[in-house]
Design brief:
Oligomer: single chain
CATH superfamily of the largest domain: NAD(P)-binding Rossmann-like Domain
Order of helices and strands: EHEHEHEHHHEHEHEEEEHEH
Radius of gyration: 19 Å
Bound molecules: guanine
Mean pLDDT: 98
Strand content: 15-25%
Number of domains: 2
Helix content: 40-55%
């Protein structure tokens, strides 16, 4: 039976370190880290993520400027909001929760964020810097995955890693980070065009699954002893739950846990780490501003 990699416990320790860093920075320089959190529309999952991010900021002593815009506000209003935060020296990080409602040009909106405040690491400048190994903000979920592997004692040097899913937020950047010399893994990036996914995952020492589809990975697709990092958060109908749904990852936890040596649970795995690395990047941005 696989060991469960406890993202909540790791996140708790790191958040205590971040809170101490926030206090130290404030005492030494008078600067309090601040994050602008922008949510457009009323997607229930986005509301719950944004609420969790704001709560985590408060607990770490980071100021959060909450901005809620109606889905009908128009792209110009959103771009103006971003421009205001770009120019405000008391704000160190800007986050626009994705996905945006229909009618917004996501690329154009992300491009409007100053790279110096892009604590999500989504702007082309930060993506480019990441690829060539320059100082940048690493995207929070891939950054959190690297921390989790390290915490769990899972070495990546020479490992065969299969990433399933090629999103800009997770799949592509985590594949790039694990390919860097520091991580030194051999990375295969699988996606919806991959023929015979199981033939790839069965060779993997580490499988990172980020497709947004429950049941993408099952135990029969794993090599015995493999490590599974499950990035998915899927709302699956569940009449036994008071909410009417339960949260499931992209992997079938029960069958994978029987074959793997370690696996991240959903909830309580990658999710808490994503938010933690957002706090980390915001503190880092404030430190740079205070220099
Ligand atoms: N939507 C899903 N994940 C993320 C994330 O890490 N940052 C933002 N801004 N939106 C997201």
């Amino acid at each position: 039976m696989a060991k469960t990699i406890d993202g909540r416990a790791l996140a708790k320790g790191l958040r205590a370190e971040i809170a101490a860093g926030v206090s130290e920075l404030r005492a030494r320089t008078g600067v309090t880290p601040a994050l602008a959190v922008i949510l457009v529309g009323d997607n229930p999952a986005s509301i719950s993520y944004v609420t969790a991010k704001e709560k985590a900021c408060a607990e770490a002593g980071i100021v959060s400027h909450e901005t809620r815009l109606d889905a009908s506000c128009g792209e110009d209003a959103l771009l103006q909001t971003i421009a205001g935060f770009n120019e405000d020296p008391s704000v160190h990080g800007i986050l626009v929760q994705l996905p945006l409602p229909r009618g917004f040009d996501e690329r154009k909106v992300i491009d409007a964020i100053s790279p110096e405040k892009d604590v999500d690491g989504f702007t082309p400048v930060n993506v480019g810097r990441m690829l060539i190994g320059e100082e940048c903000f690493l995207p929070c979920t891939p950054f959190g995955i690297l921390k989790m592997l390290d915490f769990a004692g899972v070495g990546t040097d020479g490992a065969n890693v299969v990433v399933v899913g090629r999103s800009n937020i997770v799949g592509k950047p985590v594949a790039a980070l694990l390919s860097r010399r520091e991580a030194n893994a051999t990375v295969t990036l699988c996606h919806t065009g991959t023929r015979d996914l199981a033939s790839f995952t069965r060779r993997a020492d580490i499988v990172i699954v980020a497709t947004g589809r429950a049941g993408t990975l099952t135990g029969d697709m794993l090599k015995p002893g493999a490590v599974v990092i499950d990035v998915g958060v899927n709302r699956v109908e569940d009449a036994t739950s008071p909410r009417g749904y339960s949260l499931k990852g992209d992997s079938d936890f029960e069958s994978c846990a029987r074959v793997a040596s370690a696996i991240t649970p959903v909830p309580g795995g990658v999710g808490p780490m994503t938010i933690t690395m957002l706090l980390w990047n915001t503190l880092e941005s404030a430190r740079r501003a205070a220099r």
